[in-house]
Design brief:
9% strand, four-stranded antiparallel β-sheet, alpha/beta, ABC transporter transmembrane region fold, 10 strands, 3 domains, six-stranded mixed β-sheet, Rossmann fold
């Protein structure tokens, strides 16, 4: 059984990633937008590095002075310059580090904010395609990988690159022959780092994908822990998690092993470079083409030359991981919303509530129709019941009415306005939905009610709660309206949560109401309480009611009976019973053994 569960674990194929160079350029763009701060960082690095590299030159001058004869005042002056150069260099580099840290934190803030804000503009089909855990991994874990590079790698990469360039310049000015010998290492190291990048880059991308899947399984298992415990599938859950965790471990080992190879090899090459420079310097000294001070300074530069190259190699794994993580983040930012306002779209004026579907076709997947040629009219203030077998298309009609998805053919009109011609926000401001599974936020009761209309006063919220039959139980909570709800309102009963969502909609005061099986998960007594609140909510408003219990739509002005994506029957409760069709079958099956009351 364990083997079956693991083998059939669903994996979502990731979209194609952008080229690493493109991702790296976009990533650095979040830093370079602070151009003046980054210019200051570069200037401080240049001056601080130049002063630091001036010290070996001064040391060489001192050695040359000693070889010519002891000159106390001159040597004292050189020592003072060396101390001053070291102190000023240290101060400038500390300031540079502080400025860069400030820039990187602001860049990370902008990146996270941009991703989260953009996600709020995406259509529901994007979230339908993304496992929640994997999506959360992109926003949190991948962003943290980028943060680690910004914190630990970016400053090192900038400072060490500038240091390498300055050292090469200093060596060329001192002795170009020895500079050529010292720079032999550069193409070797660059070639090796390029090879490591080509091998490790895909491995780091695979690692981020595995971590996303791991988070997806974790989120799914924790959310379904009641089911896991109920069916005693803890061992299968552990085995499933272990399989993905092991895969992530193996990919991570491969990725970091290749990246870490750069460190020892770079160290060996830099040590060989020091030996080569010492040999060339000795030969040049014997020939009279270099003096002891120059060779000594050059050896200092060569040692300093090797250290930044090693440090650059050490940042390679940070860089590769950040590139892979940023590619996954940019996939979100590159996702175009499936539902967009037309350029000519206008705000929807206050509506009376007339809704018309004209020959509407729709499919969630191209080529697979869910709705076929559906037409109906709901007059202002009417209650429209939707019923039918599971998968008939009831919720799809609601999804199209709120324009969570765009239709494939036909037209949907509200008060004569085609949905394609109005702005989505203005539509949803006048539509309220009560879902089968009520959702509440980890906040106070009062703030959950205000979520529908942020400017609502406390009095507005209390009045709405009273009309929704929620006021009395709210007052019995530990802190009344200031009681803090836990995640999803889990410290309330199902019925209490549903009453709060009804009160929240009353605060919004919409013109069009949608009830998606709002009473299907509660007991009969609670259902009656909720139904009373719903009747108050629907009074005077155009309402659409998806019904599992057909008793809840018996008094609807019009009932639409759906089957296989089409409206097969339409009429009042009495008219549909007289037809003796699908509605009659559904109704009699629910009330089998009871006297039917038209």
């Amino acid at each position: 059984m364990k083997r079956f569960l693991r083998r059939h674990r669903v994996k979502i194929a990731p979209p194609e990633l952008a080229p690493p160079r493109q991702a790296l350029g976009r990533l650095f763009g979040y830093v370079t937008r602070y151009r003046w701060e980054m210019a200051l960082v570069v200037v401080l690095l240049l001056v601080g590095t130049a002063l630091n590299l001036f010290i070996p030159f001064l040391l060489g001058q001192g050695l040359n002075s000693l070889s010519a004869g002891f000159d106390g005042p001159y040597l004292t002056q050189l020592a003072g310059w060396m101390v001053a150069a070291a102190a000023v260099s240290w101060l400038l580099l500390v300031i540079q580090g502080e400025v860069l840290a400030n820039v990187t934190q602001r860049a990370l803030y902008v990146l996270r904010k941009q991703v989260f804000e953009y996600m709020q503009t995406l259509s529901l089909n994007f979230f339908d395609r993304q496992p929640i855990g994997q999506l959360m991994s992109r926003v949190s874990d991948d962003a943290e990988v980028v943060a680690q590079f910004f914190r630990n790698g970016l400053g090192m990469l900038l400072s060490e690159t500038i240091k390498v360039l300055f050292i090469i310049l200093a060596m060329v000015l001192l002795n170009w022959r020895m500079a050529i010998a010292a720079c032999v290492i550069v193409p070797l190291v660059l070639g090796f780092l390029g090879m490591v990048s080509r091998i490790s880059g895909p491995a780091f991308a695979a690692l981020q994908a595995e971590m996303g899947e791991l988070n997806g399984i974790l989120e799914e298992t924790v959310s379904g822990e009641r089911v896991v415990i109920a069916y005693q599938r803890q061992e299968e859950a552990i085995a499933n998690f272990e399989e993905v965790s092991r895969a992530a471990m193996e990919v991570g080992i491969r990725a970091r092993f290749v990246a870490l190879l750069s460190r020892p090899l770079t160290l060996v090459l830099t040590n060989l470079d020091v030996a080569l420079v010492a040999l060339v310097g000795s030969l040049l000294t014997l020939r009279g083409q270099a003096d002891v001070g120059t060779v000594t300074a050059f050896l200092q530069y060569t040692r300093q030359f090797g250290l930044p190259i090693i440090n650059i190699a050490n940042t390679l794994d940070f860089l590769l991981a950040a590139v892979s993580a940023s590619e996954r983040i940019f996939q979100i930012l590159d996702e175009a919303p499936a539902v967009q306002d037309a350029p000519h779209a206008i705000p929807l004026p206050p509506i009376e509530g007339r809704v018309e579907f004209r020959q509407v076709d729709f499919g969630y997947v191209p080529g697979q129709r869910v709705l076929r040629q559906n037409s109906f009219i709901a007059e202002p203030g009417q209650t429209i019941g939707l019923c039918g077998p599971t998968g008939a298309g009831k919720s799809t009609i609601i999804n199209l009415l709120t324009r969570y998805y765009d239709i494939d053919a036909g037209a949907i009109l509200i008060d004569g306005h085609n949905l394609f011609d109005i702005q989505q926000d203005s539509l949803r401001q006048q539509v309220g939905i009560v879902l089968q599974e009520p959702f509440l936020f980890s906040d106070t009761v009062l703030n959950n009610l205000r979520y529908a209309r942020l400017e609502a006063s406390e009095a507005d919220c209390i009045e709405a709660a009273q009309r929704a039959n929620a006021h009395d139980f709210i007052l019995r909570l530990p802190h009344g309206y200031d009681t803090l709800l836990t995640e999803r309102g889990s410290n309330l009963s199902q019925g209490q949560r549903q009453l709060l969502t009804i009160a929240r909609m009353m605060v919004a005061n919409p013109r069009l109401v949608i009830l998606d099986e709002a009473t299907s998960n509660v007991d009969t007594r609670t259902e009656a309480n909720i139904q009373t609140a719903l009747n108050r909510l629907m009074a005077g408003r155009t309402s659409f009611v998806i019904a599992h219990r057909l008793s809840t739509i018996r008094h609807a002005d019009q009932i639409l009976v759906l089957n296989a994506g089409a409206i097969v029957e339409q009429g009042t409760h009495d008219e549909l019973l007289q037809m003796g069709g699908l509605y009659y079958d559904l109704y009699t099956s629910q009330f089998k053994g009871k006297v039917l009351t038209p």
